[in-house]
Please model this.
Amino acid sequence: MKAIYKIAFLVCVSAVATSCFDKSRPNYQYFPNMYEAVPYETYSESSAFRNGKEGQLPAEGSIPRGFSPYEYENTEEGYELAKANLKSPLDSTEVDMGKGAELYTIYCAICHGDKGDGKGNLAKREKFLGIPNYKERDITEGSVFHVETYGKNNMGSHANQLTQKERWQVAHYVMKLRSEL
Amino acid sequence: MKKVGNHTSFSRILIFCLALSLSFSLASYAQDTAAAGTEAETAASAGAGDPVKGKELFNSLCASCHKLDGKSTGPALRGVADKHDREWLYKWVHNSSELIKSGDPVAVKLFADNNNVTMTAFPQLSNQDIDNIMAYTSAPAPAPDVNTPGGKVVVQESGASNNLILGALVLVLIVLVVMLVLVNRTLRRVAAANGVEVAKQDSTISLWQAYARNQFLVLVTTILLILTGGYFLYGYLMQVGVDQGYEPIQPIHFSHKIHAGENGIDCKYCHSSARVSKTSGIPSLNVCMNCHKNISEFTGSKDSTYVEYSKEFYNGEIQKLYDAVGWDKSTQQYTGKTKPVKWVRIHNLPDFVYFNHSQHVSVAGVECQKCHGPVETFEVMKQHAPLTMGWCINCHRETNVKVEGNDYYKKIHDELAKKYGVQKLTAANMGGTECGKCHY
Model:
């Protein structure tokens, strides 16, 4: 009879060991000190900083490499000035419609539609209303860049998803779409 | 003569009770199907305008800044026709800044109340168009949604009746067991009364003892047990450190199913740094606010079968976002009081392996779903792939590298293809299985 108990015990142990995976917790690790990084990892917690986070704001006044200051303000006047005066710094060899189309599809088409007619998926599903057709609005590449940078009305700023150069690529693509509408 | 059981026996009473309780549970279940309330009729056309045409105009021109109920960039427009003189409204819509400049006190106050944001002028709208829009905005607000609270009650009720059914089943089971015992006892009594002998188990050696005496069988079983034990032990040890299926509870319930699936937002809209950097990036809350500044309520869709939680639940999660980012819904302004969201990291490679998102997403053009699974169907995000080395290497061996149109490296690609004797180069042919590529 003892053997029966032993067998039952073995079966139970193996069942417990294989079936109990708690999906809300990470699994055990061999030698965790080889898994966990000594330096700070992206988004990690760190006691080295006062707010306990690795992700810190850049020092005040610092600008990213390759950044050129944008002088138009986020106001109605700034918008009008940008519309009238701002011109793309990209020359014809740098304008890459393929790249612009790719970025437009990711960041703009969801509302503005693949053709720029204001009939993106979110507009069709009535999550966003009143998205204009590019043709109906008086826009220039400068005003498109300005709105991408600061946002306008219900549209938010996309400056942290797209670099300045990428925003210009998209602005060129938007003007191309507008001319085709 | 046959012996008949007692008419008022215990088992009969039990059966009667069971039948009674079951009939009640069925009756209470049937009530759930009562029809939901009818929808309130839309208001008859008010005044001169046509609300249907007005709705079209409103949705295409006004709705980017105005909502019917609740403040957006501009004020709520329901009932605006009663607040202002019609002639004044024509002037305002045609060119509001002129009206403000003329020193009209109402216009100046309105401008100041709305953070000095100038409304786009609409000189193209005729007075009739504006009347149509006013007719649309004058329609009374729809009665509070009858279906939603009702739906919630139904859910709770069906939960209660589920419990009821389960309870009834348990009761049935108990009754059956009791009946079995009773029947057995009665049968034995009948047998004893009629003088029938119930066959007893013969007392030869049991199967177990026979087995234990056969040494060969014991040996074979032991070997089998050791082998299966070893198999399971190996399986158990091999999954240590593998987090496939890891599905932690996040501080804000974010449904990829709604955002990426139903609404079809590109992965890279939010995870924009996957294109250009090592990490895919957890979107900062301003990216959420790009849309949720406008979308403050979960509205579901016409076929809201994909919704797994109630409307209130989703609205509560949007409110959590507002609290974290410090957005005041009523004034449409940031309060400046923010608190960071502590997302739980799911995909985490060990420190001793290097992985770069941009290399895979931008250079190789690998779909996000290839490694992360059908995320657009996940209500709760989880780790889809094992993220083991064998899994990485397997993909490197199978994935062909796009060399077309890359003339700069054409010579080296041709030579590599010749060296390995293949038509199409895989990532492994390009050195994708070298140790130092990922471990250094």
User: Anything to note?
Assistant: Strands of chain B lie at 327-328, 333-334. Residues 1-6, 22-47, 145-157 of chain B have pLDDT under 50 and may be disordered. Residues 256-387 of chain B form one domain. The two ends of chain B are 94 Å apart (CA to CA).
